[in-house]
Amino acid sequence: MTDEEFSDWVSSQLVTVESRLRESVHTPYAFVEEAASYLMELGGKRFRPGLVLAASGLAAASGDRDENAVISAAVVVELTHVASLYHDDVMDEAELRRGAPTAHKRWSNSVAIMVGDFLLAQASQIGALLGQDFMVFQAQTLARLVQGQIGEMRAPATPAEAINHHLDVVSNKTAALIAASARFGGMFAGLDDDRIEALTQYGERLGVAFQLADDVLDIISDRSGKQPGTDLREGVPTLVPLLVREHARSQDERLIELLAAPVTEPDIPEALRLLRAHPALDEARSQIRAWASEAVELLAPFPDSAAKRALTLLCEQAVVRTA
After folding, report:
1. Mean pLDDT over residues 172-187, rounded?
2. Does the global pTM surpass 0.70?
């Protein structure tokens, strides 16, 4: 395939995934179906199912690809991701998701939590048909997501461990499901164990790079899909503020003071201005480049193809977004 043909192929497969997602939340209980469809109907990039499909394309020409299993795996990872959004919004007390009221604001915390559980149950039902190896890794991934969320709620043991603690949270809460997405694409493309593992590690590093890039975009961009400084307002520790604290200079006294607690609305412009001018921003960009480069290196065993070029491009995009 040419790169354009491959992109069109992934897009056509995502149409099928979208249809299967709607089917997966169908239930005789109208309210459950309405609430479970709510966040999915708000849209989203469908990044994770797209990654399952792209990774499976590495062997599309060999005839070993199990198309139905690939589609099912893509549905499972998206259901898992959307379930985590219902739960996250409750824990974060978020009011908006993709510009609309969050489920717990529209209905209640209890409804949002139970809907998230329903989606995880539906994902398990579909995944059970994909075999024991799939379900074992899916269960391990879900355990990592939960541990990442708990880790985000707890402070590191010591200030010196803050950055490593943050990277552990990012790895578990975000990168775990992206790693699973790449792995599942390889599994049902009929790749050998070494290449499946390479794809898993690729997804892990890609996931870290993308989440760190999102954190940087929250500081530098007003086109990131959320209001700049959202993490600062919520007091969420991300890489750049953590680097500021770790390498504090005498001239950073005011910035350190601002970052000591959730930044109040009147102080957001000043905090953003100081962070954008701080060397920690370039250090964060350097770390993103390093994670993305490691991901690309893990694709080395695969022959050149449109699928490999697409997976490489994802890594490049993580870096370009923060330029």
Report:
1. 97
2. yes
